[in-house]
Amino acid sequence: MNDNFEGSLQQVLVHEGGWADHPKDPGGATMKGVTLITFRRHFGEDKSKDELRAITDEQLHQIYRAGYWDKCHCDELPGGVDYAVFDAAVNSGPGRGAKWLQGAVGAKQDGGIGSKTLTKVKEHNSVHIIDNICDRRLTFLRSLANWATFGKGWNRRVEGVRSSAIPMTEGRDIDHESIAPNIDYDSVKNGSSGLWVRKLQDAIKIHVDGIFGSGTEAALKAWQLENGLEPDGIAGRNTYRSLGLIK
């Protein structure tokens, strides 16, 4: 049991910022990381954008504690790992944050952190877990259609989480070179085309035409499943590392 919620929340709020209502943001109107949909779910469907903009500290704590921290059992995670999972849950949803943790420790990726996942967490080095979670986040974010709009900010956020979470692991030695991204690459998925699709097709030994269609997706999912990766059909940093395409 730890007591990192308050400190972790303050870190999250640094990244979340204040009011935003960007037309290309899929979350819609947001205040301090809380979307209008989330605000209404907690406090009533009649809540307006103006009321969201005036959200109180008490309301913020209630939403972040119940909706993310407690849902991901962060009180039962090691220091640093708790913050990395918490921020991932806030940014991409508790289920996805849980799956990234589960993938990092080799647990079943069902999106629900329970006793089996927590046992697996104890078997792994916290720095390595944090590093892996952040890598998985970046791979996912790079695959999104609006990476061009929000990618720089997302990348800064994830790397900020990485650099803040690691010192929370009780001062363990850190290999900073292995933490920093070491190459530019393109995450690819169904509908993509180009050089990195050709690299992927060649690496998984299928027909190389540079076009990511249903055949490539099926072959990639099968390869990911066989090699212990999340079979999401998206090729990013973890898949490329496993294939030896990047370090």
Describe the protein in words.
The chain is 56% helix and 2% strand. It has 247 residues and is mainly alpha-helical. A three-stranded antiparallel sheet has the order 1-2-3. Helix 6 crosses helix 8 (126-142). It is globular, with a radius of gyration of 19 Å. It starts with a helix and ends with a helix. 35% of the residues are buried.
Strand content: under 5%
Q: Treating each run of at least 4 consecutive H or I residues as one helix, how many helices?
A: 13
State the CATH topology of the largest domain.
Chitosanase, subunit A, domain 1
User: What gross morphology would you assign?
Assistant: globular
Class from helix and strand fractions = mainly alpha
Main sheet makeup:
3 strands, antiparallel
Order of strands, main sheet, comes to 1-2-3
Distance between the termini: 36 Å
Helix content: 55-70%
Rg, Cα atoms, Å: 19 Å
Q: What is the N-to-C order of secondary-structure elements (H for helix, E for strand)?
A: HEEEHHHHHHHHHHHH
| Top-tier CATH class of the largest domain | Mainly Alpha
Q: What is the number of beta strands?
A: 3
Low-pLDDT stretches: 171-183
CATH architectural group of the largest domain: Up-down Bundle
Q: Give me the CATH superfamily of the largest domain.
A: Chitosanase, subunit A, domain 1
